[in-house]
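User: Okay, second chain of the day. Same drill as before: sequence in, structure tokens out.
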Amino acid sequence: MGPPSTSDVERNAWIRQQEVVAELGQRALESADIDELLHDAAARVADALNAEYAAVLDLRPDADEAVLRAGVGWPAELVRSATVPVDRGSMAGWALTAREAVVAADLRSEERFSRSELLAGQDAVSGIAAAVGSEGDPWGVLSVHATEQQLFTDHDAAFVENVAGLLASAVRTRRERSDPEEIYGRISDAFVALDDEWRFTHLNERARELIGREERTLVGEHVRDAFPDAVVRPFEDRFERAVREQETVSFEEYVPEPLDGWFEVRAYPSETGLSVYLRDVTERKRAQQQLAEERDMFAAGPTIVFRWRDEEGWPVEYVSRNVEDVLGYAPEELESGDVPYTDLLLDEEIDRVAREVEENTDGTTERFSHEPYRVRTKGGDVRWVKDTTKIVRDEAGGVDHYLGYLVDVTERKERERELRRYETIVETINDGIYVKDDAGRFTMVNEAYAEMLGYEPEELLGEHASLVVDEEVVEEARRTEASMLDGEEDNPVVEAEMKTASGDRLPAEATFAMLSTADGNEQRVGVVRDISDRKERERELERYERIVENLPVGVYRNTPGPDGEFVAANATLASIFDADSVEDLLEHDVSDLYPDPDQRAEFSRTLEREGIVEGHELKQETLDGETIWISVTAIRVEEDGEVYFDGTVQDITERKERQRKLKRTERRFEAIFEDPNILVGLLEPDGTVLDINRTAMEYIDADLADVTGEPFWETPWWGEGDDVAADVREWTERAAEGEYVDFQADLTRPDGERYTLEGFFRPVTNDDGEVVSIVVSDRDVTERKLREQALQESKNQLRALIDLLPVAVFVAESDGRIVEWNEAAKEIWGGEIVESDSVAEYDQYDGWWVDTGEPVEPEEWALARALQGEEVTDPDVIEIEGFDGERRTVLNHGMPVRDADGEVSRAVVTLIDITERKEYQRKLEESNERLEQFAYAASHDLQEPLRMVSSYLQLIEDRYADELDEDGREFLEFAVDGANRMRNMIQGLLKYSRVDTRGDSFEPVDLDDVLADVRSDLQVKIVESGADITVGDLPRVEGDEGQLRQLFQNLLDNAIEYSGDEPPRVRVAAERTGGRWTVSVSDEGIGIDPDDADAVFEVFESLHAPDEHGGTGIGLALCERIVERHGGEIRVSSEPGEGATFTFTLPAADDAGA
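Assistant: Same drill. Structure tokens below.
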């Protein structure tokens, strides 16, 4: 077999094969399923060599044939069932006896062995086979085959051989982990038996060989007596658990001298003791260690593949392309031979590397590894590398060349250097450091750890952690370790008390981590610090914090400046400023508590300048915006180069409020004491006079010195009698007991004038509630009493007046309570008045609106509306049902009564019973209806004959006037005049009857305009009579303009008609009276007898004969009817020969809706 080709394809194939070896090595360490590993190995080998078949053959116990245990390419039914011979005549048998992998270029022409039926059945032509296991202990064969002839290289063969070696190691490892039954039967295991007191009862030959002691010198001895603690301690904890739980335990453990090796241990408990089997697995552990190191090499960086000649300088025949990434040389530069490999080594490394090569080439060594050494890159950098080299020998057994792969381990060496530095730190650091195995026993402690506990380091090695900590701490550590393994915690920190060698307790803080060793075991690394001083400081700090937290004053630290920040505070300070917690307060700036930022700035400047501020009072705001007063004492401190303000705060808001109240009280007392309207005295609790104000002294004929020091009840104010003095003494004694005493006394001045004092004896107490003085304050209420008496008399008179009024009167307070009523009210409501406490209770009174028939709601009564401020002057017309069941119609007025501030304090209402008036109105309406009927008859039935009479009289006059004598003509004139007067009377009656039924609706009317129209209508008569009509300023009224014109026309016409012999002189004037106008029409005519003042307004009543004055006797009756329709009244005042004045009232236009 020749050297590998230098083509890129071959180099890449070789690199890929090395990667496969590395990956399978990792799988061999990790996988628990041997069959899965065997299958994966066959698949990866076949893929790497571009072969169709790969097989893992398992030797049968008789060693005559092997079973196809795993493979690829084979029919499924053949796997685990097909067999091949393993004699010398087969390729598998040849591989089992050869020292290296067997390569067959063409099985069809191979002379060394024949092609098996299994291979022939699959048309396998070329192949490689390598033994799995050692020559003395073979397990099987790994083979790979192609269906076309293929020239496999030495590199390919080495690759298959390496994979077979990995499989052998994996198979061996799993064999050694077989069931107890297999272990029992293997004589290579050491066996010892212990009784329940840990004494030897039996050892087999292998155990004696390992221990190096005769059985007779051990049987009966206690294990601790027979062996040093260093040997026993790694096993003791697990053995105790096996006996305690009566369950088998198995583990692997390194045991120091005298055994000095790794052992797989299985312990089987019984009622009488323990059976222990030990198997030496040191070689396997070392193989695993080497495999892990090789895996780490591959993981460390890119692998460089080399081929060197065995010549001086080790010239390079081949190197992989990635060499340039590590060493900076292009492959061609090294393969040219111009740069021998020794030129890459540092001078101080050449001899060592050469020596190691020489040591390994002498003999039969096939593969070796150098310790890491340094090389220089093309750029001059120094790198650390490690290589694994395979020696390829010639047929004579000499070295032909070297194949190897080289890995850059510079980073690993850096880590090792860091590790050494760390080890130095471990031994020199003040903190204690330890390492424990998974049984909880110390495998390493540094000097500091041993020293803090009072031991030498070697005394602690092998000891269980329970030697230095309590068992509950050990259990807590186990739970923490479990959490760390589950990923729940990372480098936890715990505090515990440790037990020193002297029995003392040492407070310590520890942090630890889990460390995986190269052999796959877990160790516990811990760092322990003696925190005795810190604990003492913490206790002191805790005591200080307890004191600070329970101080009744706030304590704080903040940074200087207007925008200072809180650094620390206690709960009292947080409470003072209404913070939810100390943390809440610390989130705020100090300036948040100052309503005035300038105040904070000034305080900060003062403290910076003076270094201390004591008892400084400030107004501040809490976080809730409430204003408070505080007293601050603060100092300026420097700590670690930083400046702080440390201080205390006392909430003095209540004190400031007390001071303010005291000052206010003092000012008030001073103002009261000097008030000229108040009599004030200050007494001792026993009644001795201390001071009296000037006003009080004016009431007696004495000086202040005369009464000071005297018992108050013996002073001149109270007269010479004993009655009032006794009362004053009683009042004083009651006040001395803390009672607030009101009094009123009728007294006499020295001049004999009577007066009344009203006031109080008020006790003054200190903070403990003790009475320290008595203030007597009183006022002369003589005038008030007189006013009250007058007011009471007025009330009595008002009460009498209310009772005398013919209308019902109710009085209610502002809250709706009905407090007063008169007898008329009870009569209208037909019984005792039901008291009501509020407007809502007015529903006890039943009423209905006359115009709608709807019930009156409580808030609609005039009393309720008046309480709201409404003046009900236009009365409500309501039909009520009294408590006697009778229904009555009433007019309901209401008026609010306002106090000095204009607020409604009371309301007064009246109810007028208009039931009879309503009946009269009803009858009047019936009369009007009949009058209307009469008017209809008069306008139709009476006027028709009258017109016929008038017509015939006119016809007689026209035809026969000349034929009549003087008497006839006079008779005819009488008849015509009578007919005319009859017609005028009928028209007057029509007007009279239609005042209410044919009138227009009311509207504002200007009386000046009305009178102007009337004067125009009477112009002829005015001129003929020479009448002088004087008119004053007339108002606007609310009325029927047509009827008002008729009213004025009748009055003016009468004034002119009855003027007498002199020319008529008429005056018209108007005067406002409340909501109405009073209009008067005066003349200087013949006048009217006062006895006839009412008769003149009756229908057909005329005081003069028709031949004296014309008229129908209806004009003034019509005037009265018009005025009454306008809600007014008309009257006449006159004396015969002195003229007459007609006066009537009309509603003012601006009050029309009132």
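The domain at 657-782 is CATH 3.30.450.20 (Beta-Lactamase).

User: Thanks, on to the next one.
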